[in-house]
Write a structure and sequence with these properties.
With 790 residues, the protein is α/β, with parallel strands linked by helices. It has four domains: 340 residues, Zn peptidases (Aminopeptidase), CATH 3.40.630.10; 114 residues, no CATH class; 88 residues, Alpha-Beta Plaits (2-Layer Sandwich), CATH 3.30.70; 207 residues, Class I glutamine amidotransferase (GATase) domain (Rossmann fold, 3-Layer(aba) Sandwich). Strands 26, 27, 28, 29, 31, 32, 34, 35, 36 and 37 form a ten-stranded mixed beta sheet that branches. β13 and β14 form a beta hairpin. α2 packs parallel to α6, α7 runs parallel beside α13 and α10 packs antiparallel against α13.
């Protein structure tokens, strides 16, 4: 589930549930046979599906990828036998919806037997077990039964079942995958292989319905959601069918199990919103799907029965309404292609809402295009520009390149500049990826309870330059299927050393590769001048003392796209780098960054520190993050272990309240700070010091992400400020931060560092690696780790 406490059951409610339970037990065999597994272990999912595939001509099983832990992800495709040989035809028709929506609407009339893809996935949260078993039960029913209902469903639907969306969690008994990620928060970042596998199904099939099976909520929860609704959906088309489909699921749930349901759109004023595209069903809505999260009430066979019944109700509803539903799905794409405006939610639907908030009162027009320069000086980060272009294309967004040079807002852009025209079928997703976002801190009627994050701008948090084209220019452009590779160069001429800049994540990865190979790499501790050119703090330098140094320079250029510059002298103010040994008690974003970019780290737990069975001797840096204070969770043994590490000169990189608290409690940098509330989050304007060791060569006016914002109100005299919240009245760009305007945070530090004895300390109030999304600030964490070498 989305980790929200739903209801407190009183004695009366419990007695009603007890009676309901007896009724369910009496009829349960009709929906879940006694010989089915409970719970089916992951090791039996593959063999079970293969046996079904072998014994039923209605089922095909594919492996669509592997989990972070290397486990297969299974997609079962289920439909009438005659459809199995025509899957390519159906996929082609689905693709036609995106290429030519008007023609696709005509094709629906031509192909009277057209079947619609219906996607369901089980247990994206590993410990919400019933979803997987319900999906397998559903596959078995459709594979073998021959009732009129089954025949009707098979005649109208192609079931796409992502049977176990998180096999790591099922095996390990964890909510997240083997990397510790909540996969149902990753769909606009797509850092995890499980997420990318699901996205590939969406872009291949454009499923009409997407159901995501979770737990646990009593009564059972069946979306659609409460406000605020993201304005980049075509919400009027979505909600008309999603609400009716939810009611059909509610009816079938009651019929089969006797359980009741809550439909947030109808029954709750706020707190279960569909604003962020981080959730599986919400992301799917940008592909035209009628997306629903379902929260089953029980972690038991009753929970399986509830999931099964609700999905069955949706299948029946689609079988009865597929033609009109698909016309409206195609209409999503037609509006995008033709640049048509959003339409308001029908009044008869708003009349059924607990909170009748309509997002289209606030967004009625769109720019003509987003323009993404390819190279410097117009592009801040060529690497990140190529990264987002490939990301857009992977997500089925059309990207083109200008065939000739053009001028926009007085700036000349060269041939080859990327253009994302917004008269395209999946306009909403393109905008969601590239827009600034909104400050949604206040509801239209004053006050709001948001569910999760509310700001995610790839533009600001991935660190690339993009411009808005308000009105369409008459320029020629051609579609592309990938970004041009970023090409670096090696400066010619005689050199005493080679330098490359720390201005890309690729430079971090390259540096760790060189250190792993035992190659000497230096880091500039101060700015220096060589051949009339100024190089700033943090520049990486390789002495030209070995015969193969030119080949190393060529490797950095060709493999990482880095510009490698020839130096006439090795500067004096440098430090010799080494692969530091890092101890970590931190969140999944930190761990992801360290793993992906080649750092040498070991993850510890509070229990290990408290047990006295581990030593931090030999480690160089301790990284700690989190809202829960590490220090308060340590016993005397754990505190002694940490204190001994710092007394011996170990360094600290502390993120959030836990890191700041650890620094103060151990007498390193004693700081005071203020924070927002627990789920305040979003994008803030920051003023970086581009000459500082932690924020070296960052643009001075830029951005960062905060989750439970923290700003330092006092620090020791020797502490150095690397970045602070911009001292302006509009420092908050997008997201949800209650009362940010009166918080007093403007102008205060959010990254600072200093020394205490032999220890170097860097403290963060922003979250530089939150859920692996803010790639722009990844380098600040790398620089913080390397600060101890200076």
């Amino acid at each position: 589930m989305r980790l929200r406490t739903r209801y407190i059951l009183g004695a009366f409610t419990l007695s009603i549930l007890a009676l309901t339970y007896l009724n369910v037990v009496a009829t349960f065999s009709t929906v879940y046979a006694a010989d089915d597994p409970y719970w089916i272990p992951y090791s039996q999912i593959g063999p079970t599906l293969r046996e079904i595939e072998k014994t039923s001509n209605r089922v095909r099983v594919e492996v669509i990828g592997q989990s972070a832990g290397g486990r297969d992800l299974y997609l079962a495709i289920v439909s009438a036998p005659e459809a199995m040989g025509r899957l390519g035809v159906y996929q082609a028709i689905r693709q036609q919806m995106v290429k030519d929506p008007s023609k696709a609407q005509e094709m629906i009339d031509t192909f009277g037997d057209f079947k619609v893809p219906f996607y369901v996935q089980g247990s994206i949260h590993g410990t919400e077990y019933p979803g997987v078993d319900a999906v397998i039960r559903l596959i078995k029913t459709l594979a073998y039964d021959d009732t009129p209902e089954v025949r009707t469903i098979l005649d109208n639907v192609i079931l796409l079942a992502n049977v176990d969306a998180n096999p790591d969690g099922r095996v390990l008994g964890t909510r997240g995958n083997a990397n510790g990620f909540d996969l149902n928060r990753d769909f606009i970042t797509q850092s995890q292989p499980e997420t990318r596998a699901a996205v590939s199904v969406f872009t291949e099939w454009n499923p009409m319905v997407v159901l995501d099976l979770h737990g646990f909520s009593r009564p059972m929860l069946i979306e659609p959601c409460t406000p605020p609704h993201n304005p980049n959906y075509e919400y009027d088309l979505y909600i008309t069918w999603a609400l009716a489909e939810a009611k059909a699921m509610e009816d079938e749930l009651l019929l089969q199990t006797g359980f009741s349901a809550t439909i947030p759109f109808r029954d709750e004023p706020e707190g279960w919103d569909d604003w962020p595209p981080i959730f599986n069903p919400m992301y799917a809505m940008y592909h035209g799907a009628y997306g629903h999260t379902l929260e089953t009430p029980y972690n038991s066979l009753d929970g399986v029965a509830a999931d099964y019944a609700a999905v069955w109700g949706a299948l029946k509803f689609v079988s009865q309404n597929r033609k009109d539903m698909i016309r409206d799905q195609i209409e999503v794409f037609r509006r995008g292609l033709l640049g048509l405006p959003h339409l308001p939610i029908p009044q008869e639907i708003l009349d059924q809402a607990k909170n009748p908030w309509d997002p289209y009162d606030y967004l009625t027009t769109f720019p003509a295009a987003y323009v993404i320069p390819k190279e410097k000086p117009l592009q801040q980060s060529p690497h990140q520009a190529a990264r987002v272009v490939d990301f857009l294309i992977f997500n089925d967004i059309q990207v083109e390149q200008a065939s000739d040079a053009f001028t926009l807002n007085g700036v000349d852009y060269p041939k080859g500049t990327y253009v994302v025209w917004l008269n395209q079928p999946k306009r909403g997703l393109a905008i969601t990826i590239l827009w600034d976002g909104w400050d949604i801190s206040y509801a239209p009627q004053g006050g709001l309870d948001m569910y999760d994050i509310s700001g995610w701008s790839h533009t600001y948090l991935w660190g690339f330059s993009r411009q808005i084209m308000p009105d369409r220019l008459d320029i020629k452009s051609n579609p592309i299927n990938r970004a041009d590779p970023v090409t670096g160069f090696v400066e010619g001429g005689k050199a005493q050393a080679y330098a490359y800049l720390p201005t890309s994540n690729e430079a971090i990865e390259a540096t760790n590769e060189l250190l792993t190979q035992g190659i000497s790499v230096y880091r500039a501790t101060k700015s220096f001048v060589d051949s009339g050119r100024e190089f700033s703090t943090g520049t990486f330098i390789i002495p030209a003392t070995k015969p193969n140094v030119k080949s190393l320079a060529n490797h950095l250029s060709s493999e990482y796209g880095l510009d490698v510059l020839a130096l006439q002298a090795l500067p004096s103010d440098t430090t010799l780098m080494r692969k530091q040994k890092i101890a970590v008690i931190a969140d999944e974003g930190v761990r992801f960054f360290l793993k992906e970019y080649g750092f040498n780290f070991t993850v510890f737990t509070i229990a290990q520190l408290n047990s006295g069975t581990i030593s931090l001797t030999g480690y160089d840096v301790f990284i700690n993050s989190g809202s829960s204070r590490l220090w308060s969770g340590l016993n005397s043994i754990g505190k002694a272990t940490i204190s001994a590490f710092f007394a011996a000169g170990g360094d600290l990189v502390g993120l959030g309240p836990s890191g700041a608290d650890l620094s103060s409690k151990t007498g390193l940098l004693v700081v005071t700070y203020k924070t927002g509330l627990a789920n305040d989050n979003g994008i803030v304007k920051l003023t970086y010091d581009p000459y500082d060791t932690v924020t070296t060569q960052y643009p001075s006016d830029s951005y960062g992400f905060v989750y439970r914002p923290l700003w330092f109100t006092s620090s020791p005299p020797n502490a150095i400020v690397s970045a602070r919240i911009t001292l302006t009245s509009d420092f908050f760009v997008a997201g949800f931060w209650r009362n940010w305007e009166t918080s007093g945070a403007a102008g205060y530090p959010v990254i600072l560092h200093g020394t205490s004895g032999a220890s170097d300390v860097v403290l963060f109030g922003i979250d530089p690696t939150f859920r692996a999304h803010p790639e722009f600030t990844f380098a600040t964490l790398a620089n913080a780790i390397w600060t101890g070498l200076d």
